[in-house]
Specification:
single chain, 200 residues, mainly alpha, two-stranded antiparallel ribbon, 4% strand, elongated
Length: 200
């Protein structure tokens, strides 16, 4: 497959991943599907891993990848394929931006999953808002997950499922952008279609 066509496929794949990531981050502002005070929202939600990392920063590489197949640069230095080769090379830079953005989202999600949600729990003397879990100790203990957080209801599965989706989306985006780095390098070295000549 031509490197430009492959990049276009990657671009089409990244767009829905961006949308899902942004929606997950927005939903995390409503723990357990409920509206709570700003200070009672888990800290990692405010890092905007899904909105900025896997969302906004991923839109740029996605749009660049989508445009590579139709790139119609008129060439340079007497070489008509030069424009396409440069476009493939520049796509590597945007793929790198995508890796950074998705990597940021992965790190934020992993930290949030390990730390657990912010919720109202009994600290021994009274109910208070905070982080009752530490070091992911709740992940393999369903009884602990269900009994500790008093409010908002269902916050633990809500937190765990949405940040898990963000983690998976980020890992997929990192992999796709890494593929484009390799694809862009091949396109820059061989032209748009390795073995088939440069097509316009």
């Amino acid at each position: 497959m031509c490197s430009g066509g492959f990049a276009r496929c990657l671009g089409f794949t990244l767009i829905p991943l961006c949308i899902v990531s942004v929606l997950c981050n927005i939903l995390l502002f409503f723990p357990g599907g409920k509206s709570v005070d700003r200070q009672n929202i888990t800290d990692q939600v405010w890092y905007f891993g899904g909105i900025l990392g896997s969302g906004v920063l991923m839109i740029f590489p996605a749009l660049v990848f989508l445009g590579l197949k139709n790139n119609d640069c008129c060439g340079c230095c007497g070489n008509e394929s030069c424009g396409r080769r440069f476009a493939m090379l520049s796509s590597m830079l945007f793929a790198g931006i995508g890796v950074v953005g998705a990597g940021y989202s992965v790190i934020v999600s992993a930290v949030a999953i390990n730390r657990g949600p912010k919720c109202m729990f009994s600290n021994g003397t009274a109910l208070d808002w905070g982080y009752p879990f530490s070091n992911g100790d709740y992940l393999g203990n369903a009884t602990l997950r269900d009994s500790v957080c008093k409010e908002p209801g269902g916050v633990v599965p809500w937190h765990l499922s949405l940040f898990s989706v963000l983690l998976v989306m980020g890992l997929i985006q990192v992999a796709l952008c890494a593929f484009q780095v390799i694809n862009g390098l091949l396109g820059a070295l061989c032209g748009d279609c390795c073995g088939g000549g440069d097509e316009h």
